[in-house]
Structures are given as C-alpha cells and as structure tokens.
Request: fold
Amino acid sequence: MSVGELFWFEKYRPRSFDEVVDLDEVKGRLREFVRAGNMPHLLFYGPPGTGKTTMALVLARELYGEYWREDVLELNASDERGINVIRERVKEFARTAPVGKAPFKLVVLDEADNMTSDAQQALRRIMEMYAATTRFILMANYVSRIIDPIISRCAVFRFPPMPKELMAERLRYIANKEGVKLTDDGIDAIYEIAQGDMRRAINLLQMAAAAEGVVNKDSVAAVASAARPSDVLEVFNAALGGDVEKARERLRDLMYIKGIAGVDFLRALQRELPRLQLDDDAKAAVAELLADVDFRLAEGSDEELQLTYMLVKLAAIGARAKPTPAPRRK
Reply:
C-alpha cells in the first residue's frame, strides 16, 4: 500500500463521474462539456467536504485522460492568495500552449474566496486575456466573497452538504472494504459531527477504527474530541435547574480534561436544542443566548468567562420557565 493510500479519503476519492454519488445535475452538465471538448470557466461553491475539489479533478481526468497533470495547474488560493502568485505562476502557466492534443489548459484554484481583492482583479484580467488557451475552475466556500466580474465570467455550480443516507452508504462501503465494524449509532455520531462534510466523515471513520477497532458513538466521540450529547445535556440540565456550580464543574471537566473547545460545546448544545423539553419561548431565549456567546467567542473573549456567563443566564431562563406554584389556601 502506498503512502497516499494510508489516508482513506484519498484512497476512496472518486476517479470518474460514475463513482461520484449524488450531484446528478452537476455531473450531467459537466459530462456535456467533456463530450463537446469545450467548456466555460467554472465556479464551484458550497460547504467544505462536499466534493468541489474531487469533481474538479474528475473533470480534469475525463478531459485529459491518463496524463492530466501535464495540462492542469492546481493551487490552494488560501496559501497562495497574493497578487504576485496570480501574476507570476498563473499567468506563466496560462500563456503557454496545452500539451499534446488537449483543447486548453486547466487552472484549478481551491479556496478562491480567500484571495485578496487585488488578486481577484488580476485573475479576472488573466481569465480574459487567455480565454483561448486556458480554462479556470474556482472553488469557494462562500460565493459572496468572489467579486462580481469573476462570477459573471463563470458557470456557477452549488455543492450542497452530503445527505445522511448517501453518507451512510459510502461509510458502510468503506468499512466493508477495510474490514471495520461500523454500527448504526457510529454513523449517527459521525454525521452529527461532520454535518454533511464527507472528507471529515471519512477521516473520523478511519481514526475511530484505528483507535478502537469498532466504530460506534463512543469511539467516534473519543477521537473527535467532541462532546457527547449526554455530557451536553448533563451540563445544560444542571444549569437550567439552577445548579450553576455543578454545571460549571462539569463543563470545566469537558474543557480541560477531555479537551472540548467552548465553541464545539456551543455547537453540540445547538444541535440538541430542538429536542429539548422546553416551551417555545424558553427555546428562543436559549438560542439567542447561544448566538450571543458564540459571537463574543468569535470576537476573542475569554472562553471560560463567557461559558460561565452562559450557565448563569441558563439558570435565569430555567427559573422563568418553571411554573409558578399556586398559592396555598388559608
């Protein structure tokens, strides 16, 4: 087994359109480009791990065959995001003729939304100048960060998160190939953490299998450093019931012993919120509180201080949510 195959995500990455699950509309349109031997510039956008890079590489293989790397320049724009990279590396590659009988060369720019505005303007000009010999595939998590002149020059494709049933099917396929026992609650745990990110799901599967042998909810939570729903509910119920000290000690255990980040705890509590036995007003108050604390953490506030504030506010919400006892008759 080669070094690359040690990583299951690369080992099981689709190599052709037939191996790609879901995204039927995207595959259909890209197949038309391959049959025509021509295509416009493309913009793939969507959350991480939804197949943007994989689809770009599959398209390159379909266009150029076995020696596709000779006519493809692949860059990660988040690492090489400045204008000099666009003017030097991309321009130098785009201005040369394609190798062999290829109709055009292909530039694949991953995480293009992290490019500076000046770099995007330079890229726009290069896309115009070398349209006869070069096509671009841009990938972004947030299409709103791409300037309008680039968007108007591209055919835009949205990549949604992987549906749970398709993710489960692929995880079972990999587990079967690798001889790993994968339980249903393990799949549920992986999906809860990955949230449609197939790359993260496969990596979690591999880590849990390597650490525990059996992939279930406990092994997934252990390798993901993720808060178990039972731990989240224990802290939440203690705080909501007014026992802030107990909730704080349990939360500190999760943060400093198990290594759970405060923002990950907030995300786990947010996922559990719809299932909590609370009235709508109390749920709305909790949701607003979580958003407030999440914003403060994103702005750089102290993690433990903000989470302690959250527990105190939960206690206040719990006190308001409790029914007021009827007065005793004299």
Notes: Confidence is low (pLDDT under 50) at residues 1-5, 323-330. Residues 187 and 209 are 12 Å apart (CA to CA).
